[in-house]
Design a protein that fits this description.
- The complex is a heterodimer of chains A (108) and B (118).
- Chain A is an all-beta fold.
- Chain A is built from no helices and 10 strands.
- Chain B is mainly β and 118 residues long.
- Chain B is built from no helices and 11 strands.
- Chain B is 0% helix and 50% strand.
- In chain B, the strands form 2 sheets. In chain B, strands 2, 4, 5, 6, 9, 10 and 11 form a 7-stranded mixed beta sheet that branches.
- The chains are: A mainly beta (108), B mainly beta (118).
- The interface between A and B is medium-sized, with 23 and 20 residues.
């Protein structure tokens, strides 16, 4: 199975900060990486698919990049509603589409 | 709108079984795979398996093989996940998810909390 290693596991930041979360795959996965946001008590929400395609309705301060094995999610200017947990996921290798362990983004 | 609506919370004894339903609306149910993902308290996301609603074909994660069964009823656009021989560490929120157009999990159910306790 392909392993997705996310870092950091937690991050403290302030409103207005620029933050970057990274995800590394254990093998080549082209651009088959998605990013999800999960607020407490809620289901995850798809933010970015195919490494860099922003889903409709997602603010443009979110962006994704990468290909091959290394990927990043960047939030350009943190807003209060962005404090949540973020997960990467690979959808390159069926049958299982594993997730990273998550990055908890907290208010400093 | 496109949505997945799951059945309500369950409390079960160890050794029992639980069946969670997931009703799809707003799209053609048979056109997209349904995955099941679980999340234990304070933990990350773990995929359990999938079902092809068109054919009924399934594939289960090795961790759950022998205990999980995924089925569907196309007449009512509903998928089901049955987990047997429950243990305390099966206590979690269970999500059904649509594997959509973008090679991603684009629509999530609201989650069903299953608590296993004696």
């Amino acid at each position: 199975d392909i392993q997705m290693t996310q870092s950091p596991s937690s991050l403290s930041a302030s409103v207005g900060d620029r933050v970057t979360i990274t995800c590394r795959a254990s093998q080549y996965i082209s651009n088959y990486v998605n990013w999800y946001q999960q607020r407490p008590g809620r289901a995850p929400k798809l933010l970015i698919s195919a490494a860099s395609s922003l889903q409709g309705g997602v603010p443009s301060r979110f962006s994704g990049s990468g290909s091959g094995t290394d990927f990043t999610l960047t939030i350009s200017s943190l807003q209060p509603e962005d404090f949540a947990t973020y997960y990467c996921q690979q959808t390159y290798n069926t049958p299982g589409f594993g997730f990273g362990q998550g990055t908890r983004l907290e208010i400093k | 709108q496109v949505q997945l609506v799951q059945s309500g919370a369950e409390v079960k004894r160890p050794g029992a079984s639980v069946k969670v339903s997931c009703n799809a609306s707003g799209y053609t149910f048979t056109a997209f795979y349904i995955y099941w993902v679980r999340q234990a308290p304070g933990q990350g996301l773990q995929w359990m398996g999938w079902i092809n609603p068109h054919s009924g074909d399934t594939n289960y994660a090795q961790k759950f093989q022998g205990r999980v069964t995924m089925t569907r009823d196309t007449s009512i656009s509903t998928a089901y996940m049955d987990l047997s021989r429950l243990r305390s560490d099966d206590s979690a929120v269970y999500y059904c998810v649509r594997y959509g157009n973008y090679f991603a999990f684009d629509i999530w159910g609201q989650g069903t909390m299953v608590t296993v306790s004696s």
